[in-house]
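Hi Y.,

Following your request, here is the sequence exactly as I used it, all 415 residues.
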Amino acid sequence: MAIPVINATINFSTGPGFAQAFIIGSGILGTNILADSASVIVDVSDQVNAISTKRGRSAESDQFQTGTMSLKIVDTNGDFNSQNVNSPYYGLLSPMRKVQITATYGAVTYPIFSGYITSYNTTTPQYTGDVSFTTITAVDAFRLAQNAQVSTISGTSAGQLSGARINNILDTISWPSSQRQVDAGQTTLQADPGTARTSLGAMQTVEISEYGALYVDRSNNFVFKDRKTATTSVNQTAVSFTDTGSGIAYNNAVWIFNDALIYNKADITMAGGTTQNATNTASVTKYFLHSYNQQNLLMQTDAVALDYARAYVASRAETTVRCDAITLDLYTDNYTAGTIAALDLDFFDPVTITTTQPAATGTSTLTKTLQVFGVAMDIKLNNWKVTLTTLEPIIDGFLLGVDNFDVLGTNTMSY
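Below is the corresponding structure, written out as tokens. Let me know if you'd prefer a different format.
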């Protein structure tokens, strides 16, 4: 049984970047960051006792959340106790220093989590010979953007595409251009309102106005996907998971049928505009009223706001049985394909999940193609489980020639 090798490093340099410092005469161009002294980077891979990470999108709020991590390390000498004056890192153990987790499997290194330390919690045993542990908690760059207030965003203008606006906001908080992946965008925006708000709030207003997605990936890059990418991303080869037959075996699958994702009335208002609404009467009759409301968005015309409202309701007026999550056990025998999938799959990747159901005669199956919108890892001694949260696409768009997404009257002709 081959299990991935965990790599865990703590970077005590300041600033958002994770690369080692570039020092003239000794650095590597294109790899290191220009600085006058080397970063203190500590490899704690051999001290790892447990790791848990959680990243993903809230189905209810329709937005991605701040990623979190907990890293428990064996700390016999109290090296990571910030009060220990004899620690080799004394004076460096500060909040907002950087931590990075990767896993190496089959000569490939996969990112798991990169973020910023919020606390060091050391447990000191009462009896000599007992093991001391320090638990390090961390968050990803969403928290930094939430803490950074902005007002006027330089470089903005009416008619600017949403991707350019996201870049302007990131420039305002001095976020490195090397740590962002930003689509151009499909929606042209009004001039920035210039009001006081968090930079995360400013970017999320753009995200909603675009009907796209904003999140931080496993390598701590800000990622902005416009609605075209969000719609077409399901048109990739889906990874197949199943409880029998061909496909990757899973440890557990959670199927759910509820009204949590139903929205049959949407009121969308652009800043300075009039409220545009769309309603699916049949859905209201069937499920009662489920309302969605967004105000002060930045699209330029009421017509685009109406398109948004129509697309939103068309994508969410109905509900079906879906697989809410699957759990993969990396300690399963002969699990190469499953291990690679667990380490490689991330947001927007499509998956097909099949579960066999007992029936009065023979068996029946539940099969659903969804997208990954959450990844949680729980890593302990002799235990490594990965839970993939799965959801319907953000926009249930009409994709010509793609099975289950080319049904006229069912899938939405995206604007």
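The longest strand covers residues 363-380.

Thanks again,
Q.
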